[in-house]
Amino acid sequence: MTTTTTTETTTQVYQVFIKASPEQIWDALTKPEFTEKYFYGARVDSTVEVGSPWRYQGPDGSLWGDETVFEADPPNKLVVGWRSLYSPELADEPASRITWEIQAHEGSYSQLTVVHDQLDGSPKTAESVSGAGWMMVLSGLKTLLETGKPLAD
């Protein structure tokens, strides 16, 4: 996996190759039965239509994120808003944006690129999700899709 953080624009870029089809990765990003297994127990809740809500509910049912789907091109690209509501300190910061891009490659694997940007006014969120934050999510996603088991198993 590669990680790039640019302090001038506060853009974080993560890339990982996963032995899965773009459709499998899309489902893992957009269906709650998958996200709860690799996204810190959070269940995504969205119709994944442009303009619809993009929400994450924590394991206890609390609202961890409540933003909007900006762009949806299944199974290639998904752009959503992001606010970390699980922490009052982070929830006070402005929303940022996450872009998931999925590109198929020969050999039955795909490249997933995650760009978390518009973090200029959200330094605490940027710090919270950088490094281990996104890397744990992406490692868990990769493990789940390649082995069928969550990372924690």
Task: Please explain how this structure is put together.
- The mean pLDDT is 92.
- The chain has one domain: START domain (Alpha-D-Glucose-1,6-Bisphosphate, Chain A, domain 4, 2-Layer Sandwich), CATH 3.30.530.20.
- A hairpin with a 4-residue loop joins strand 1 and strand 2.
- The protein is of the alpha+beta class and 153 residues long.
- The chain is 28% helix and 37% strand.
- It has an 8-stranded antiparallel beta sheet with strand order 1-2-8-7-6-5-4-3.
Highlighted features:
about 150 residues; alpha+beta; Alpha-D-Glucose-1,6-Bisphosphate, Chain A, domain 4; 8-stranded antiparallel sheet; about 30% helix; globular
Short description:
This protein is an alpha+beta fold. It contains 5 helices and 8 strands, in the order ββααββββαββαα. The protein is globular.
**How would you describe the oligomerization state of the chains in this entry?**
single chain
Overall number of domains: 1
Report Rg: 14 Å
Globally, the shape reads globular
Q: What number is the mean pLDDT?
A: 92
> In this structure, how is the largest beta sheet organized?
8 strands, antiparallel
Distance between the termini: 21 Å
